[in-house]
Amino acid sequence: MSTRPILDELNDRSREVFRRVVEAYLMTGEPVGSRTLTRDMSEKVSAATVRNVMQDLEYLGLLDAPHVSAGRRPTQQGLRMFVDGLMEIDPVAPTDRARIEETLGHDSSDVAGLLDRVGAALSSMTHGASLVLTPKHEAPIRHIEFVNLGTDRALVVLVYSDGRVENRLFTPPPGQTPSSMREAGNFLNALAEGRTLTELRTQFTQEISRRRQEIDGLAAALIEQGLAIWESNDSDARLIVRGRANLLDAEAADLDRIRELFDDLERKRDIAQFLDLTEQGDGVRIFIGSENKLFSLSGSSLVVSPYMNSDRKIIGAVGVIGPTRLNYGRIVPIVDYTAHLVGRVLSGLKG
């Protein structure tokens, strides 16, 4: 939900109090009291006045207090409003820029090794856990075939133009016959030439709706199941996670929630879902707390950006995960700069 209307309703004093509370919280991780704020306000105001403003901000759902006598800290909604409307993005520091460029500057065609170094550098610079999605194998397809192995088992064979062959076992839809398998293979092979798997999936979706009368329903279901198997088992796509120990340092008081996050990082290898987080817009995306659907832990934030090949096609992503009180103003440009450099380097390697 957009927080822009709430931000527009705040007067200058309320904005300043809110901004200072959030900035202080992101720096210290502690609730902020009214007396602390009065020392830094641009106008001379009493602690009572600041308390009243903070109470109004709490009523709006932007601040809360861990207990009655404590100061205030931003809520998830408050952090979202700060990030969207008030945050100042710092330029990438020269030392950070040099570190990223050095990491990517190795003369090597080892893409996996390069991206592993990127993950280590991001984790070190941001003091969070880094996430790097490696590119999928995207060679054009030469041939596709379905092989019946029994009443509830089938094999889908995918041959790439570079000679690589993939075999995937799956449970076919009920009622498949040799003729429906042949029809499914013939239909896909007619569309597949020169297309990658991703392109074929898009083309198939369009063709199946346009030519529904021309292809048997059993064959259509078989194609859908076969393509789903390929997409969910791309052996060349993997998620690299570095810097888990940084999360322990950041949230030592809440080990149970950190262990839950570790379990998510280890268990959820749904690469397509991670990449989906980046596909709704070009550039950095920020997921705060429960907005982050990939991980069940609500007390974390994810800053993620896609990287693209020379054709401006998204082929992977880099990101940083940590507590909600991340230094967003510094981390956002680091992730953005890293993603752009990774895309440029990989385009050069592929070329």
UniProtKB/TrEMBL annotation:
Where in the numbering of this chain does the Heat-inducible transcription repressor HrcA C-terminal domain appear? 114-332
- Give the top-rank taxon of the lineage listed in the UniProt record for this protein: Bacteria
InterPro entries linked: GAF-like_dom_sf, HrcA, HrcA_C, WH-like_DNA-bd_sf, WH_DNA-bd_sf, WHTH_transcript_rep_HrcA_IDD
* Record field: transmembrane: none
Question: What are the UniProt keywords, alphabetically?
Answer: Repressor, Stress response, Transcription, Transcription regulation
Among the record's GO biological process terms, what is one?
negative regulation of DNA-templated transcription
Q: Name one GO molecular function term.
A: DNA binding
Chain's role:
Negative regulator of class I heat shock genes (grpE-dnaK-dnaJ and groELS operons). Prevents heat-shock induction of these operons.
For this protein, the record's HAMAP family field holds: HrcA (MF_00081)
By sequence similarity, the record places it as follows:
Belongs to the HrcA family.
What protein does this entry describe?
A: Heat-inducible transcription repressor HrcA
